[in-house]
Amino acid sequence: MKYFPAFLDLSDRPALLVGGGEPAARKLRLLRKAGARVTVVAPQAVAEITALADGGQIVLHRRPFRPRDLRGQVLAVSATAVDGVDRAVAEAAKAAGLPVNVVDRPDLSTFVTPAIVDRGQVVIGISTGGAAPVLARRLRTAIEAALPARLGRLARFAETFRSAVAATVPDGRARRVFWESFFDGPVARRVLAGQENVAREAMLSLVNRRSSGQALKGGVTMVGAGPGDPDLLTLRALSALQTADAVVYDRLVGPEIVDRARRDAERIYVGKAKGDHSADQDEINALLLSLARAGKRVVRLKGGDPFIFGRGGEEAEFLRRHGVEVDFVPGITAAAGCAAAAGIPLTHRGLAQAVTFVTGHGADGEPDLDWAALARAGHTVAIYIGLSTAGRLAQQLIDHGRAASTPVAVVSRGTLPDQRIEIGTLDTLEAMIRNREIEGPALILIGEVVSLAAAAALADAVPLQAAG
Ligand SMILES: C[S@@+](CC[C@H](N)C(=O)[O-])C[C@H]1O[C@@H](n2cnc3c(N)ncnc32)[C@H](O)[C@@H]1O
Questions:
Q1: How confident is the model at residue 361 (pLDDT cuts 50, 70, 90)?
Q2: Shortest-distance atom of ligand 1 to CA 386
């Protein structure tokens, strides 16, 4: 380790900044964020600095640096990019026993400022000891992407409950376990989702339950796994998976996604393929209930979004009726994933002003839909679970006035490595599915917007004769 990592408390303390250019402005922002009372010394300064001086938020001396500027300061930063000046500041600060940082000159500095990830009270500093600042910035980008935006709020939220928790859970080890399960659990997820009021009530009941000696309750988080590509999981879905005790997942959720769960999490497959009912809905409900009642944090992982043809609402209703807390993490639904994969905008000025998601399967076969509305031009129809009824659905649309030549796309296993995109027209849809042996899961997109499908997909398409 080349540098000693430390965080300085500069709140309401005087700091000197020498230089008035853009690099100085960047340092000034950081010093002010940390609450320092900053004095800037520079013959000229950029507008951002002069505006702060005019507003009385900093002191600005419009002249060259003098060693006595250091008097009374707790730290100095030089950002002039003029070797002689930077050197003079560094030497004077060292002589005065003050920590000094010279921008881009670790050789003159007694401390360096790391690349930072700033989430309010939570700050992560990354340093490569001056060896590779670009690498530090890349690491920062990776960490930025992995950390929820409201992490600082979560830290503040936890802080407000610290003394209440200390009073209810006096034993240090038990308290640590409490906080660990808090940070992994649904209350923390609510804070991260910006629902602090709901979280506060849930936290109060959590603390009260502890004080009355009751066991911690389990809960179910209903998580959308997206259309298939594991990189399309949301950050929140990933965090729920990584803190789950049990993951209950469907057929549409591939192994690469289930593998993102915490290593020790129990993984339970409840997939339902057509004609193979591995677990029926009542069994799934009962399983979720028993896992939650055993105090487990359960992730109910569903393909796409749990609330779009996913029966997420039914499962949640059942669990809530039985007193189990349920929260939700949305996922990218198949229509959005497949449209992006095929380069088809679902709405597009001049081509489609509306999009409707429909299921191709009603409770007993073909669904009862408002065909006249769906048949209107300028309207994109995304059909889920529609391969086996596609011909009849297409005919209904044509019978209700949609042009037989309306372009259609069938995207099978969208976003997965073996994804297929087939393009045709409404009257050839059934023949295309049969002749090209398209298998599910597949999503059918109907509408003028399909003409905008990525050029590559269009080039692959083989023209077809109309069905019948
Ligand atoms: C029971 S629904 C579940 C939908 C899911 N909740 C969602 O929001 O995407 C299953 C249907 O979604 C569509 N689907 C799901 N994943 C797909 C994928 N990767 N490619 C194409 N269609 C997909 C298919 O139409 C499939 O029959």
A1: confident
A2: 25
DSSP 315-349: HHHHHHHTT-EEEEE----HHHHHHHHHT--SSBT
Pocket test for ligand 1, best of 233, 300, 307, 309 (most atoms within 8 A of CB): 309
In the structure, which protein residues have their CB atom closer than 6 angstroms to any atom of ligand 1? 227-228, 252, 302-305, 308-310, 333-334, 338, 384-385, 411-416, 440-443
Question: Which pLDDT tens digit goes with each residue over 119-154?
Answer: 888 899 998 887 887 888 889 988 888 888 899 999
- Contacts of the segment 121-127: beta carbons below 8 A, 24+ positions apart: 121/152, 121/155, 121/156, 121/159, 122/151, 122/152, 122/154, 122/155, 123/7, 125/5, 125/7, 127/2, 127/3, 127/5
Nearest to 78, CA basis, from 52, 53, 113, 46? 113
The ligand 1 atom at the shortest distance from the C-alpha of residue 310 is 6
CA of 337 to the centre of ligand 1 (A): 10
Q: Tell me, in angstroms, the distance from the centre of ligand 1 to residue 348's CA.
A: 23
Name the residue at shortest CA distance from atom 12 of ligand 1.
Answer: 384
Largest CA distance in the chain: 94
CB atoms within 10 A of CB 333: 24
Q: Write the residue with the smallest CA distance to atom 27 of ligand 1.
A: 385
Chain CA centroid to CA 23, Å: 31
- Sign of dihedral through CA atoms 424, 426, 432, 433? positive
Single pTM value for the model: 0.71
181-208 pLDDT, tens digit per residue, is 888 788 998 899 899 999 999 899 888 8
Distance from Cα 463 to the centre of ligand 1, integer Å: 26
**pLDDT bucket at 272, cuts 50 / 70 / 90:** low
Query: What residue has token string 């250019």?
Result: 21
Q: Whose CA is nearest to atom 7 of ligand 1?
A: 304
Residue minimizing CA distance to atom 4 of ligand 1: 309
Q: How far is CA 230 from the centre of its chain?
A: 13
> Looking at the DSSP assignment, which residues form a beta bridge with residue 222?
300, 328
Q: Which residues are catalytic?
A: 250, 272
CA distance 181 to 43: 55
CA distance 347 to 380: 7
